[in-house]
Amino acid sequence: MSVQLSLTVNGKPVSATVDARTLLVDFLRNELALTGTHVGCDTGQCGACTVSLDGRAVKACNLLAAQANGAKVVTIEGLAAADGTLHPMQAAFKECHGLQCGFCTPGMVLSAIDLVARHPQPDEKTIRAELEGNLCRCTGYQNIVKAVAHGAAAMAK
Amino acid sequence: MYSFELKRADSVASAAALLGETGGKPLAGGQSLVAAMKLRLAQPGTLVDLSGIAELRGIRKEGDHVVIGAMTRHAEVAASKDVRAAIPALAALAEGIGDRQIRNMGTIGGALANNDPAADYPAAVLGLGASVNTNKRKIAADDFFRGMYETALADGEIITSVSFPVPKKAAYAKFAQPASRFALVGVFVAQTGGGVRVAVTGAASAVFRCKPLEEALAKNFTADAATMVKVSPDGLNRDLHGSPEYRAHLVSVMAARAVVAAG
Amino acid sequence: MGANDTGLIGQAVRRREDLRFLTGAGQYTDDVNPPHHTHAYFLRSPHAHAKIRKVDTAKAKAAPGVVAVFTGADLEGVNGLPCGWLITGTDGKPMNEPPHPVLAQGKVRHVGDPVALVVAESPHEAKDAAELIDVDYEVLPAVVNCVAALKPGAPQIHEQAPGNKCYTWALGDKAAVDAAFAKAAHVAKVDIVNNRLIPNAIEPRAAVASYSRADDSYTLYVASQNPHVERLLMTAFVLGLPETKVRVIAPDVGGGFGSKIYLYAEETAMVWASKRVNRPIKWAAERGEAFVSDAHGRDHVTHAELACDGDGRFLAMRVVTTANMGAYLSTFASCIPTILYATLLAGQYTTPAIWCEVTASFTNTVPVDAYRGAGRPEATYVVERLVHQAGVDLGIAQDEIRRRNFIRTFPYATPVALTYDTGNYDATLDGAKAAADVAGYAARKAESGKRGKLRGIGYSSYIEACGLAPSNVAGALGARAGLFEAGEVRVNPTGGVTVFTGSHSHGQGHETTFAQVVAAKLGIDIETVEVVHGDTGRVPFGMGTYGSRSLAVGGTAIVKALDKVIAKGKKIAAHLLEAAEADIEFRDGKFTVAGTDRSKAFGEVALAAYVPHNYPLDKLEPGLDETAFYDPTNFTYPAGTHICEVEIDPDTGVVEVARFTACDDFGNIINPMIVEGQVHGGLAQGIGQALLENCVYDAESGQLLSGSYMDYAMPRADDLPSFQVETRVTPCTHNPLGAKGCGEAGAIGAPAALMNAVHDALLGVGVKHLDMPASPHRVWQAIRAARG
Asked: Of A37, A105, A144, which is closest to C22 when you measure between CB atoms?
């Protein structure tokens, strides 16, 4: 059973007809070859699939592609500038060693940007609480917390 | 996920018509429904997407009530100036549902229609004595929640909004299950025009009012009064994360904390 | 590193691999999409234990999009999955090693045991078709507990393992231990459960298997920590293919923690099937599948005793452990509770006599194998809980009882088969105490008390054996493989260097650390060094990454290859400079005639090797490409002290980790930023084990109750404090880098520190014993039981 959708992904308009049961994450990965959005669980908890939907961080594995109809979606591939300059939050993750295996990283970065939009100068407690929806098994979160604070400061400039 | 058909509705009337024709299920934010479908635990033949229905969105103050459209997301409730001013406990509860990404998609109508035994919103709706408005009628909170994942909603009936009376004071205290972060026990305490109401979620098969606590707090709205109440473990849930006895104990503890938070 | 150190060693060089991960350009197995690929779905047993009477796949085969359906019957002639380590029991007999069919044959033995492989055009169609497979099960009683499995009358899981026993094995001098206990002034005792864990790398396992008719060869992309081992086991032991016909590529891998070491049924079946369907086959585990198919960790039940004299000096230790193997022997399962466990029971202490007996049993659960730390966390937990208990029993402060028993003379031969080459346990204990502000603890405890909270402090002075391993020693202990590592240094004509390492990075940052080692040693720009790993088609050989071995063993192999490159470079430079080879020195990227200013840059020598116009062709081959295999002469022995402070809310049982300090000795450190990150991650997993994580099966049905993130509590950002991490350095004496390894320390030391803190906090309310995890429910129950 197919469904029509048109949306904007990383600034580009996209139209497609997909099986209604296509998840947004599968649409991004399989139809648009945007494989930076990852799938780490099937219960909507790990947050590896986090993307921005009209400016809100959402879990692309817990959303039908059809639910993104008409929306502006930004994935990890859409954050850096056209000349390759990293978004300040991406740069902060590198500077602070906020990633190891890199699998949770795209979701973490997207969540962090959503977080900073609401908390421009987040303290450690806020950052830890706001990252509740993103699991990382490698870093123990400490350098992620550091990176988010660092990225927030850079974004304020 | 099993195959299904997706229909988009642009009004409550058209949604109701589509649901009537297809026997399908409404899709709100989908944060529970899509998850259940992925695990093949739910198998609707048709989903009727409510996200395009403008009349289901928004928060407004109506006299001494706050009315929240069914498709209003948790994050919107949490951030709403009206809700924060009138019922700060409700804003705080919404801010504690799931995680940020869930709050950015999940809706109050979807959460209530699902009536997960460990969901937060049912505690607020029951604790505040709110009413659930549908395309057919107005349902009092005391009549709405029927059992595990069961509500008074008829097939094809659509929640349109929830009307919360502004309490004198209220607060919600949640003890999160360590893995899911759903409520192992969540207690909503309110001093309302109709007296003290205490609603408990997570502890049993569905949200319920705890009469012993209501009586105790009606006499003496203090943390100590709540702590003194020995809640019966009979009928409470047992799982990996807590025995009925533990949950019963936590009901008193969380009630006491909610009383403190209510100020 | 010596004279050629360009200042890169010890520097927090930012990671080179980060750019691709931060821009979504990483390539994980599930990102690989060969043309015309199909999708696999594995139908798994819903039962813990059942006979398969019949499997009917007719309807599934006829379902839309289905390419093929295979069951165990189709795989007749394919061998079972092998176990890589033979343990010989105390009875002198080899362990019971029942077959582990790739797809179930005749019986299923745990929930999740794969029964059929469906290959279809889409994942949905594969899954839809799997529901049409009719399996007629005769459900049998199940047993999930490792002790219960050994009791008379327990359900029999394998014909080849009577009484569900895999082996009983022992290490140490039992008579000496018995004699020491007989005259001990005090005996401290603990009965502990080391809880079963599920590794949960955030990238679920995945594989893409392709077959080429052109040359009858296979290519397997797989989320693996050791592609060469994967290839060796799959070809030689299971499928009977020549290694030359199988290329295994482990591209970017999203965390491993042990769980991606092993040869699993899924990729094996897929490689086999890829020829049958003549199309690539892709599979990515759903998280729910990962819970019931990734090898689990830990799961020990132990009684342990420590004999002390009146001053708290340890005289002897006696440990009896039952270990759960799960339903089948996973690749390295048998050596974890033996070779990697009992040998660590000396800890940091001079305990002169130790005896340990381990019985391993089969149960109707997912196989258990190495998980971050692998045997050493279990050993540390036994030792450090015992030491804590002895301190409590004898009224000796926790730092003092450790100090009284520390080993201070090296090398030190323990009574459990290891020889520690070096260490300084006082330094790490002192460092941890200072960093943890132990002096301020009493005030913090009083302040907690004012708020109605119970505060406790716990120590864990751990040791680990890393840098696996001297192959001959391992072989004598039953290893069926070598444990060396290989490295190739290919100097390109224009001076750039490509390094091929048999180690695999799945988060550890080898592309940066190894490049630092190479650039420093050759005195060249780090940007000219590229590190390649994870591909049997490019890397000469490799044993992979596990046991905190990559730098100590894999890094050393690279250093040995670099030595060969430099030695050859000296010969070339001697020719170019018309000097004697013995007079050539290599320093700062230049070959120099000693005592002169005449020199050739490294790049010039490289160019000469590939454009050998002026070259000693009569004595020397052209080219500059060297390979080394390094087999270590000993294990390495990272050690340290962790100190944890907890605050417990007696009303709810919630344990908050208020402070956590680690002071570790990993030997020399190449990149302190990466090392600190490794410690953080290890601590999170160790704290996770002690506080949150618990794999629970229903004792009757054998169903996995903690089968998703809804019930298996993963540590999240707000569960953890900021850790205080420090290091002290005693260089490893037997590898040129002086490195010991750092990847597992956190997971090894942390559980005991946390649980000792919990026991300290609860001592006042009368709680004597609590098993991990110290979940709110358990803590509350323990307090309630103690208060009566």
From this structure: A105
Gap between the Cα atoms of B191 and B194, Å rounded: 8
Evaluate if residue C434 carries a pLDDT over 60: yes
Checking ipTM against 0.90, whether it exceeds it is yes
3-state DSSP assignment of residue C54: strand
pLDDT at C3: 39
Does residue A139 belong to the interface with chain C, where contact is any CB pair within 8 Å?
yes
Whether the Cβ atoms of residue B67 and residue B162 lie closer than 8 Å to each other: yes
- Choose the mutation target among A42, A111, A132 for the interface with B, i.e. most B CBs under 10 Å: A132
d(CA B158, CA B27): 10
Q: Are the beta carbons of B100 and A53 separated by less than 8 Å?
A: no
Query: Residues of CATH 3.30.43.10 domain(s) within chain B?
Result: 5-49
Query: Which of A41, A124, A126 would best serve as a mutation to test chain C binding (most C beta carbons within 10 A)?
Result: A41
Closest Cα in chain C, distance from residue A35 (Å): 6
Q: What is the pLDDT of residue A1?
A: 84
Residue A137 lies in a domain: yes
In a domain, A83, yes or no: no
CATH number reported for the structural domain that contains residue A113 in this entry: 1.10.150.120
Thinking of the domain C2-25+484-630, which architecture would CATH place it in? 2-Layer Sandwich (3.30)
pTM (two decimals): 0.97
CA distance B86 to B164: 10
pLDDT at residue C2, as a whole number: 41
Nearest chain C alpha carbon to B180: C710
Q: Which CATH number fits domain B169-262: 3.30.70.1070, 3.40.50.970, 3.30.390.50, 3.20.20.70?
A: 3.30.390.50
Q: Structural domain tally of chain A? A: 2
CATH of region C32-140+203-254+260-293: 3.90.1170.50
Q: Are A127 and A147 in the same domain?
A: yes
pLDDT at position B138 is: 98
- Residue C113, both tokens: 């045991």
- Confidence tier at B36 by pLDDT (50, 70, 90): very high
Nearest CB among B1, B39, B246 relative to C777 is that of B246
Q: How do strand C281-284 and strand C38-44 relate by DSSP bridges?
A: parallel
From the list B256, B135, A28, A42, the residue with the least C-alpha distance to C202 is: A42
Which segment of A1-5, C17-21, C743-747 scores lowest on mean pLDDT? A1-5
Please enumerate residues of B whose Cβ is less than 8 A from a Cβ of C: 1-3, 39-40, 175, 178-180, 182, 239-243, 246, 249-250, 253
Report the alpha-carbon distance of residue C378 to residue C374 in Å, rounded: 8
CATH number assigned to the domain with residue range B56-165, chosen from the 4 options 3.30.465.10, 3.40.190.10, 3.40.30.10, 3.40.50.620: 3.30.465.10
Beta strand C497-501 with C529-533 is parallel
What is the rounded average pLDDT of the residues C516-530? Answer: 96
Residue C252 amino acid letter? D
**Residue C607: is its pLDDT beyond 80?**
yes
**Structural contact between residues C346 and C419, judged by C-beta atoms closer than 8 angstroms:** no
In a mutagenesis test of the B interface, which of C44, C289, C652, C716 is the best target, namely the one with the most B β-carbons within 10 Å? C652
Nearest to C713 among B175, B178, B242 (CB): B178
Out of 1.10.1040.50, 3.30.43.10, 3.40.350.10, 3.40.50.1100, the CATH code matching B5-49 is 3.30.43.10
Closest by CA to C716, choosing from C693, C744, C695, C743, is C693
The H or E element that residue B208 is part of is: strand B208-209
Q: Helices (H), strands (E): how many in chain C?
A: 18, 28
Where are chain C's structural domains?
2-25+484-630, 32-140+203-254+260-293, 300-469+634-787
Q: How close, in Å, is residue A95 to chain B by CA atoms? A: 25
Q: Is B102 on the interface with A (CB under 8 A)?
A: yes
Whether B178 and C776 lie within 8 Å, measured CB to CB: yes
Architecture of domain C300-469+634-787: 2-Layer Sandwich (3.30)
